[in-house]
């Protein structure tokens, strides 16, 4: 299975329409791939809170239309990163969209863990509550977004829902690059899945994004890692490795799900 992570540069100088046109062009250029992944909130900017109301859209809005067409034209499964979704009641969500090779929307995930510590996303958006996996022609894909990486229970839930590969769009801050590298490898290793983490690059909302998009195999080994500029990282994933790893190193069967807290003396 061949996958490409398109590490878009998301800067304050360009508009959502300009980003959509550039992203669609880059996706169309990936014909022959099986899966393409884009970053988190690349249309509005994950740190440009002042643009969210203006750039929010319905699930079937302009970003979905452009990405559906690009996926169909390229013949790829497309994880279109995430958008600022405006729900029916006007509520905002950070929502990931997954399209199949025909351009049909096959998966929608509303980010469960909102970043901000009582500011930004944590106050302006509502969190989702559904664990989402999608069967594809190359395996079961689990959906997570950026800050979700810090919460292993979500990834254990994705594993239990059948995930063999987890796609993680992100706009991770450059100041915490060390955490990004550690968590992406850890989540892949502990769940014995492929993890494709596509992070934006550039600066907006006074936040420099980390870049360093990475593909990690079930052994925790990076198959490839991008730098800090806009680029496309392409890797080959042997999906049979998931079952092989789980058989040869069957740690998941030794899980103890109900460990009681120790009594205080």
TrEMBL record:
<dbReference type="Pfam" id="PF00795">
    <property type="entry name" value="CN_hydrolase"/>
</dbReference>
<dbReference type="InterPro" id="IPR036526">
    <property type="entry name" value="C-N_Hydrolase_sf"/>
</dbReference>
<keyword id="KW-0378">Hydrolase</keyword>
<feature type="domain" description="CN hydrolase">
    <location>
        <begin position="1"/>
        <end position="239"/>
    </location>
</feature>
<protein>
    <submittedName>
        <fullName>Carbon-nitrogen family hydrolase</fullName>
    </submittedName>
</protein>
<dbReference type="InterPro" id="IPR003010">
    <property type="entry name" value="C-N_Hydrolase"/>
</dbReference>
<comment type="similarity">
    <text>Belongs to the carbon-nitrogen hydrolase superfamily. NIT1/NIT2 family.</text>
</comment>
<dbReference type="InterPro" id="IPR001110">
    <property type="entry name" value="UPF0012_CS"/>
</dbReference>
<dbReference type="GO" id="GO:0016787">
    <property type="term" value="F:hydrolase activity"/>
</dbReference>
